[in-house]
Design a protein that fits this description.
The structure is a single chain. The chain has about 500 residues and is mostly helical. The chain folds into three domains: about 5-35 and about 425-495, no CATH class; about 40-175 and about 390-410, 2-Layer Sandwich (Alpha-Beta Plaits); about 205-370, no CATH class. Helices cover about 70% and strands about 5% of the residues. The chain is built from 14 helices and four strands. The chain has helices spanning about 5-15, 20-35, 70-80, 85-95, 105-115, 140-200, 205-250, 255-275, 280-305, 310-315, 320-400, 425-450, 455-465, 485-495; strands at about 45-50, 115-120, 130-140, 405-410. The chain has a four-stranded antiparallel β-sheet. About 15% of the residues are buried.
Length: about 500
């Protein structure tokens, strides 16, 4: 069973064991300070590099490299700290000459790599990197500075090289992609032109034009049909007049002319009957004219049989009247007009059929044309986008070649270290002091806990389980009989027992 110590108990232990709390820390501090002299001095040279933004506004020229700077620094660090980069530096500056025969080149490069430190300096904004520092540690101050400068130069060169290669590679890639895109665009353009040539007049953009042309042709057809009908009516009328004039004229036409008229009227009647009913006035009128001419022909035949040969010859040689000749000319003109209008009517009907066929094929042609147009527009958009990106990449490449883009600028060059960074003798002494103090505290507690001495009223109550009834103070000798040193020593010895003693005359 162990007594629980209070703050007063700890203070009492400190007073009683003050030598253990003083002597070990002092000895350990001296030992640590002395130990620092057994280590070889190491010097550290540091260079500070600032990341300077592009000199041309990014809104005007887009940077060729837009990756995160931290990732690029990590990639550059891995490349620069590789064996192919560090081995020439190690040999040029003669690092670790004393260990060349003892260790392999891999071990020496690992040792050099461990002495290189790259620290990123964070900016005020989140994830911004205004710069970084490069440190190198070795046992020669001058060589340390030169190696640190060399590594800093490697970072500068690697940044310029990486940015220019990235810009040039991007431009080359876009150039090849642009060439492929142009070939694809030319193929789509040729397909579209061939389709337009093959389906001329059937394209979606010509649908309204075809509709207008169809309406116009239909209007022309109606006009021609009406003109044809009027010409036919006029011819019929003229033939009727001619028949009447011929019947009333003393100069009767020959039988052949009458037969031709009858034949023409019958053909007209057949045409009229295909369009109209038998009760139509034109049909009835034509039938009457045919009947009249047939009667006239019969009467002429009987007259010719009764007349003499001389009268027949005279009648055949007698010329027709001017009115009859005019009517015959009019009929001939109307026949020519009817033939022309019939030919024009057939031509218009053929054109109408052609345009109607185009309009019927428009939905199918429209779907195919839409697909070709969509492919062509996609190829055109891709070509335009690649052309724009190629122009931007060429400007970015030129910007990097002129070193007007993002750059590393050395703010503080590698310094020449004047004091060793290792060992720090005061740190060794402080470490020894801490170790000694801990050792003294542990020894003091172990000694106190191992002893069962009674040093106060609380110890009596804890160990004996009995209450304190009365306490007797320590009687101090006459001050005149002891020296001041003895008096001081007795006074300090009496302090622990003052806890047991109360004021004179008091008891519990």
């Amino acid at each position: 069973m162990t007594k629980q110590l209070t703050l007063q108990d700890y203070l009492g232990i400190a007073r009683r064991r003050k030598r253990l709390l003083i002597i070990p820390p002092v000895l350990c501090a001296i030992a640590g300070f002395a130990t620092s002299f057994f280590f070889n001095a190491k010097y550290t040279s540091t260079a500070l590099v600032l990341v300077q933004g592009p000199r041309v506004a990014t809104s005007l020229v887009k940077p060729a490299v837009s990756d995160d700077l931290n990732e690029r620094l990590l990639a550059m660090e891995q490349q620069i700290l590789s064996r192919s980069r560090l081995e020439p530096v190690l040999q040029r500056f003669g690092l670790y000459k004393e260990d060349l025969n003892k260790s392999s080149m891999e071990d020496l490069i690992d040792r050099m790599r461990s002495n290189i430190q790259v620290d990123v300096i964070r900016g005020a904004k989140e994830r911004s990197t205004p710069g970084f520092s490069i440190s190198f540690t070795s046992d020669n101050p001058k060589v340390t500075q030169e190696v640190c400068s060399e590594i800093t130069s490697l970072f500068m060169q690697e940044n310029l090289k990486e940015r220019e290669e990235s810009a040039v590679g991007t431009t080359d890639f876009l150039t090849s992609q642009l060439a492929d895109s142009k070939r694809n665009l030319d193929e789509q353009d040729a397909k579209l032109a061939e389709f337009e040539r093959k389906h001329i007049g059937q394209l979606p953009g010509e649908q309204n034009l075809n509709m207008d042309m169809l309406n116009s042709l239909r209007t022309q057809l109606d006009s021609v049909t009406q003109a044809l009908y009027r010409a036919q009516q006029d011819k019929l009328y003229m033939e009727n007049l001619l028949a009447q004039e011929t019947a009333a004229s003393p100069d009767t036409p020959s039988t052949t002319d009458v037969q031709n008229q009858i034949k023409s009227l019958k053909e007209k009647l057949v045409d009229l009957e295909t369009h109209y009913t038998p009760q139509h006035p034109d049909v009835i009128k034509t039938k009457q004219m045919i009947a009249t001419l047939e009667k006239s022909l019969e009467s002429d035949s009987s007259t010719e049989q009764n007349s003499s040969p001389v009268s027949k010859a005279a009648s055949q040689e007698s010329p027709s009247s001017p009115n009859i000749q005019h009517l015959r000319d009019s009929v001939h003109v109307l026949q020519t007009t009817i033939r022309e209008k019939s030919t024009e009517q057939a031509k218009l009907q053929q054109e109408i059929t052609q345009y109607e066929g185009r309009l019927e094929l428009t939905p199918t042609v429209k779907e195919e044309y839409k697909q070709l147009t969509r492919d062509y527009q996609t190829a055109q958009s891709l070509y335009d986008d690649l052309l724009r990106k190629k122009s931007e990449s060429e400007m970015s490449t030129d910007l990097e070649r002129r070193q007007q883009g993002e750059q590393f600028r050395v703010v503080d060059a590698a310094n020449l270290p004047e004091k060793p960074s290792f060992p720090n003798r005061w740190q060794f002494a402080g470490g020894g002091l801490g170790v000694g103090l801990g050792l003294g505290v542990v020894l003091a507690l172990l000694i106190e806990l191992s002893q069962k001495a009674i040093r106060g009223e609380s110890d009596i109550e804890f160990y004996l389980k009995l209450p304190v009834i009365v306490s007797i103070p320590i009687v101090v000798p006459d001050e005149r009989a002891v020296s001041s040193r003895r008096r001081k020593w007795l006074g300090k010895k009496a302090q622990p027992r003052a806890v047991l003693a109360n004021t004179p005359g008091e008891g519990r």
